[in-house]
Structures are given as structure tokens and as C-alpha cells.
Design brief:
- The protein is 40% helix and 18% strand.
- By secondary structure, it is an alpha+beta fold.
- The protein has 2 domains: 89 residues; 230 residues, Bira Bifunctional Protein, Domain 2 (BirA Bifunctional Protein, domain 2, 2-Layer Sandwich), CATH 3.30.930.10.
- Helix 1 runs parallel beside helix 4 and helix 2 runs antiparallel to helix 4.
- It is elongated.
Amino acid sequence: MKNRINKIKELALKEMSEAKSLADLEKLRVKYLGRRSDLTNVLRGLKDLSKGERKEIGEMANKIKEEIESGIRNQESGIKKLKFSNIESREKIDTTYPGEKIKKGHLHPLTQVRYEIEEIFKSMGFLTVEGREVEDEFHNFDALNIPKDHPARDIWDTFWLKDGNLLQTHTSPMQIRFMKENKPPLRIIVPGRVFRYEASDATHESNFYQVEGLMVDESGKITVANFKSAMAEFMKSLFKREVKIRLRPSYFPFVEPGFEIDVSCPYCDGAGCRICKKTGWIEILGAGMVNQKVFTSVGFKKDKYEGFAFGFGLDRIAMIKYGVDDVRLFYSGDLRFLEQF
């Protein structure tokens, strides 16, 4: 048994001295120290020896095992040292040579426009709040004066969920949630993603972004003139130039009176161009004075408060701002398009 162990030692040390690479050393480690190695078999066989032999052979085998492990480490260190000893002559680095610039990503154009809009309204004292994408029927419709049998529900092609909830069709539900927890005066905008079950084309998507706005105070303190002034300031800041505002009567269940807002085309100054379809005007948002039924649905006393609400498609604003004629480009993931912004 002793001769066998000494023979293992001699062969291991001899082969280690001849090893030329780290891969060779790894093979030797497995060969002499692995689970199926001769030395491991010797150690496993100790149980069959007498007590005296077991102690003597065990100590001898463990000592040789340590010598082999030490020899492999030393040889490994020598191979590594040799490998890197003349690296400066083999791998010269010109520290004066310009490095390659790391390509940086940037915010999506819709995100850029959203942040700009938030900053503009922040400068006018509006707080930005987040809504929720999965809503219930009460906040999305009923509290906004759109009961189940109301024909206005047909305007919103709704994605209904199995549990009776829905994907929000507009960001207006956050008006209700915010007014239920806060008392006037209020100034908020609610940017968020909305969903409608409709066909996709150059100006429509089933998933798009909206920005809702709400300003409420005691009766007599807020008028349509305040709203028009706020919108003029917003458009001026967004398009970096003076723009004219035009109000047209319209209908929305949650406001009374309601109106559509047109702005003079910022690209042709109202002369008529491709962007405004030769009209000189661009329809940009819907708005109105908050219907008193909306106030009572959140527990406000009727006629105690007044305010205005508005909502616009962030995607549409981005299309106008950047002169994009197909909303689907924003969602295409085409880097050739996105890298322009």
C-alpha cells in the first residue's frame, strides 16, 4: 500500500513538472485528486485496514494529497507569471488613441413631450398625479355622468375585463379619485395610458396617451376666461411661439358647457398647410366647465364649487409638435424613426 502511494506521488509530481498550460494542470487535478483517482480509492479503502495500518496509511495518503495540491498551485502560479511576463511587448496600448464613443440611448419622443407638458403646467401651479390603468365602472363612467343607459358610452369603445373592471378609456377617472380625497382649491394634471377597442390607422391606436387637467375653486372664482388664458399660455410654452385659441361648442357628459379647442397652426401661422389640412386651425383638445353632477358624485355640495376640466391626446400633441403624420410610428420600435428625436 505504501509503495502504491509513493508511486502515485512520483507520477503526479513528474507530470506536473511537464505541464505547459492551465488546462493541463486541470486534467492532472482531476486525474490525481478527483473522485475516481487512485489516491481517492486508497482513502476509501482505509476502512478495510487494521487500526494501526489505517492511521499510518491515512496520514501518509493525506500528506501526499497535500503535496500534490501544493504542487499544482505552485505550477499554476508559474504558468500565469510566465504568461504575463512579457505582455507589454506583445500587447502595446496607445493611450493617446481616441476611444470609441459609447452610444447613449435617449427618452422616447412621447416621454419627452410628456415631461415638457408636466413642466409647463407645474410652472402654472398644477400638480401632476398618476391614475390607474385598470379602473372600475363607477369611476370611469358613472361618477362622470355617464350611466349605463347613456348613449355617450358608445363613444368609448371599452376593453372590459372578466372581473367587471375595465382598462381606463380616458384619464378622467382620476379627477373623481382626487376630488374624493382632496378639497378645493385644486389644480392637477393626470398623464396616463388609455385603451380603446378601435381599429389602428394613421391617427388612431387602441393604446395611446392622454393628459387630463382639472382646476376647481369656490363658485365665481373660475370662469371660461381663466381656462382660455391657461390654454393660451400652455400652447405658447409648448410650441415656443404665440398661438391663437378658438373655442367651438361641443358635448361631453362631464362638463357643461363643453367645447373643443382649436389652435392656430404653429407651422403656417394660420395661412394653411399640410399639417392643418389648409384650414389654418388644428383641433387639439376637448374641455368645459365641470358638470355639477360630477361634483355631487364626489360629495361636494351642489353649486358650491366651479371649475374647468380638459383632456387631450399626448400622441396628437407630439404629432403636431414634430410634424409626424402617422401615430403608429411612435409605437413601431423603428430606431431610424426614434433616433431623430
